[in-house]
Each structure stands twice: as C-alpha cells, then as structure tokens.
Design goal:
single chain; seven-stranded mixed beta sheet; six-stranded mixed beta sheet; about 500 residues; binds adenosine-5'-triphosphate; binds magnesium ion
Amino acid sequence: MDKYIGAIDQGTTSTRFIVFNRQGEIAAISQKEHRQIYPQPGWAEHDPLQIWQHTQEVITQALRESNIGPAELDSIGVTNQRETTLLWDKTTGKPYHNAIVWQCTRTQQICEELEQHGGNDRFRDKTGLPISTYFSGPKIKWILENVPEAREAAEKGEALFGTMETWVIWWLTGGPRGGAHITDVTNASRTMLMNLYTLDWDDEILDILQIPEQILPHIVPSSDSETWGNTLPDGPLQEEIPVCGAVGDQQAALVGQTCFQVGEAKNTYGTGCFLLMNTGNEPIFSTHGLLTTLAYQFDGEQAVYCLEGPVATAGALVQWLRDNLRFIDHAYEVEHLAQKVEDNAGVYIIPAFSGLLAPYWRPDARGTICGLTGYADRNHIARAALESTAYQVKDIVETMNKDNTVELQSLKADGGMIDNHLLMQFQADILNVPVIRPLIRETTCLGAAYAAGLASGFWSGTPELRENWQEDTRWHPQMSRDIREAKYKKWQEAVSRSFNWSN
Ligand SMILES: Nc1ncnc2c1ncn2[C@@H]1O[C@H](COP(=O)(O)OP(=O)(O)OP(=O)(O)O)[C@@H](O)[C@H]1O
Ligand SMILES: [Mg+2]
C-alpha cells in the first residue's frame, strides 16, 4: 500500500490540512477560518489557542471524511503565515499575548527608534531585510516591553518564542510534555534576528533589541531527516508520525511550484502577494527594495536563497469589499462586477491598509481611492480593486528586473485569486509576459509536503517532484504598449497620493 504525506498550512485567514499522494494530488482536505482581531486601526492579532484548536479539528475532519487512516501517513510537513509572533509559557502552553500578525503596524515606533542609529538598512548586510514593522524581531520586542509577565518569564527561561510553525510543531510533538521547539531557516530568516550566512541567531542584533536568546527556537533545515519529534498517539493524528518538514508559506509555494533552478520565480495571490525568485546558493542583495531571504534548505544540502517582493494587501482588499463594504457575498463575485465594465473609468485603489511593503516600504501610507467621478460605479470599484493587485505585482516585477540582468519571461501563479480570469488576463497584459497556472494549485501545502517527503525518503529527489508539476492555463498578454504604459503611469501617480497619511 502506497502511503501519503500530510501537510498543515497555518495561514493568515485559515488553517488547512491536506493529504497528498505520491503524484502530489489531493487525497483529503479540510479548512477552517479563524478570527481576525483588529484592536486599533493598523493593528492585527490572532488567538493562538483558537488556531491550535482549528489545527486539530482540520486534521481530524480531513482524515474522517476521506477514510484515510493515520497509519497511512508517512510523515508530516508544516507551512505557515510567516513573521506572525507569539510568546508562551513552556510549562502550561499559555500565550502571554495574542499572536501579533505580520501585517500589524504597532511596532512603528520601535522601528523608528532602531533606525535612529544606523538607518533603515543597518541590519541588511546580515539579515537581507530593512527595518520594518513586518518582521518578527520588533514584534518580540513589543511583547517583552508591553507584557511585564512575558519579560520576567523570558529572563527566567520560562517563555518560548515562535512563529506559527514553531507553535504548531511544539504542540504536535508534545507541547508541555517535551514538544520540539524549532524553527526552519525560512521562517528564521524573517525575524530580522538571523544571520543569512551562519544561519544562526545574531548576538549583536539580539543585544540591540534586548531579546534573551533562551526564548528562541533551534534553527533547523526546512527538510530534515533528523526528525524533530513525532506526533503523539493521544493527539489528533493518533499515531507516532515523524514531523520533518517546515517551510514558511511563500517559500513553500516556491517549492510546490518546483522553482528549483536559479532565475525561476512564482507569485502567490492570497491575502497578500509574494513574488519569490530562486537565486541559488549565494544571497543576492537588492538595490531597489526587495528582500534577500532563505528559499529553502533540504536535508544535507546547502541553503538556497531568493529575492522576494512582498505586497501586504491583495486578496484582503476583496475580503474588505465583502466584509466591510458588503459589496459582495463571496470573493469570486468581484469578478462578476468587474466584468460588467470595459475598464476602470480612471479609478485606482491603493490598498495600503497597513502601509506599503516592497518596493516602497512606506508604513505611513494608507488606503486611497483616486480618480473618482460621478460616472464611476461599484463595477468600476470592483475592477479597480482587482487591478490594484496586478499593479502591485507589476511594481515588484519592475524592481526585480532592475536588480537582475535577466528579465522575467513568464510568471508562475498560485493562491486563491488565480481562479479570477479577469485578474490573470489583466496581470499578463500589464506585465507583458504570460501568466501560468499549474494543475495542482495548493502549492503552499504541497511545498510543505515535499519538504517532509524529501526528508523521509518518500520522494527520491527534486527531479521526481518536477515531474508532478503540470501546466493548466496560460494567459497571454494582449494589451498595446501605449495603453499599458499610460495606465501604469497613472498607477504610480496614484501610489504617491497614498503617502504621509499615518503620522
Ligand atoms: N475568485 C476570486 N477573486 C478574487 N479574489 C479571490 C477569489 N477567490 C479568493 N480570493 C481571495 O483570495 C484570498 C484567499 O486566497 P488564499 O486561500 O490563497 O489566501 P491565503 O493568503 O493563502 O490565506 P492564508 O493567508 O490564510 O494562507 C482571499 O483574500 C480572497 O479574498
Ligand atoms: Mg496561504
């Protein structure tokens, strides 16, 4: 009997569990959304205990509905929303504070103070990152400064820090009863605390941020034959199954899209958008505002790096139209509205809900709608919302082309928004390169499964994984150069209007 691999995707909006077969096809799936907590404008939190509860529920449900027994699972991989930060008590598992979500801007002041000595790029040589509210390091500092109990416990060695993969793996492998406290290199590279070359925590940065090293997890490869721990027979998997793969969600999608060669890139259209390009075994530094980060490290191999352009708000704007404006009942309906009109009627939306990430890095930017006239209606707004995602990706591609001598020839796409034909066509038009959708779309979970299955020997190596990748749909550019350039110029003008709103 051929076995399966189980993958947990602890995402920003939901948690899912997917069981894959050897061909990378889905054999079982279950998903559950969790609560988004917004205590103030620009702040975002998650309840970590609800997330662990949902993780257990989706595992149980997927196995029950598919009739796949836990004993049929070879191993488990975990992928996660990155940077989201949590500290908890290691003897009780109780969090000291809600998890601070990656989009949250509460650390703006901390970041400004850090910049005062050495500027925004003072840690870039070591970490590949600018100082930003986005990364975990400043979020840890915020918790330690604002929750006295957490600072005290951290100094005494009673507190643990983790991003969401660390939290989930700790519970899966025993929690207070000896759970593994680990983070993989991709997640560690987003803390702004890890040295890109040594793949270890950086003492100097820890000192500057006043973070005690004893709270930090052990940094491990993304795919590791030295199993971190097994699931527990009295846990949701009911068996001892090795947990041996962990990759941050965006890097997991890169792996799931099998972008194993230098120059290969993918863009994921989910809550935000994240374009990652494999740059091989050496970190390449951007001079135009992209991040240098870990792509993956497979068992016994050298680490692989990538250049990344993150966009904070993409599908989240569609959710906002749905939940806050009640424009639509379901995300896909945004396409029905947008289809009713030929163009955006000059309307541009800059969804800078929590500032703008790459390539602008403007925490002071806020959401802006430009170019409104009495002619514009909800259909134009829907269209402008979708187009804003494509323009933000265009900003990243333009930047990546400046940093690279070779221009991007096509774009592999994945994530929830790729069901949207109008968006995909507009993306091809505005980029002027084909956009390609793979047959297996759950690339994030698949990447986590691949990491686990490579470590356990379930898959023989990356060539076998490449055979699983197949093209489904390809959108070819159809827009004239004049129109493309005129539209993009207006977009850039609109972006400049979103600056200087907060502080
Ligand atoms: N047909 C559609 N058109 C436009 N947007 C869509 C469509 N379907 C889904 N979305 C958007 O895609 C996002 C969900 O995609 P996906 O599940 O990939 O998100 P995600 O970022 O992986 O979530 P998480 O952060 O929880 O991992 C939502 O923000 C939703 O608004
Ligand atoms: Mg996701």
